[in-house]
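ok trying again, last paste got cut off:
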Amino acid sequence: MRFLIAAIALLVLGVLGWYSGYAGEVQGELRCEGSGAVIINVDGKDYAVNGMASRRYPPIERVWNSATHPEADIGRILSRGLTLCDW
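nice, full thing came through this time. structure:
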């Protein structure tokens, strides 16, 4: 039963596309466009998380990089975004 509740909670969070907390101070709404472009909206502006999104949006490094936020993990953001893309 606990597994079912956890699975439903993860599904709801995935559908909402909300991302918060994994990247330290970088918080925003995470979404997938097309066949794999992962985008995060931070303070009302969209940023590319992966190469597929970089044609339309500036890179996430404009608001996050390992020098300013060494505790942040871009891999976790990307993984979460690709989950939204059904990858």
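cool. Helices lie at 2-16, 74-84. The two ends are 26 Å apart (CA to CA).
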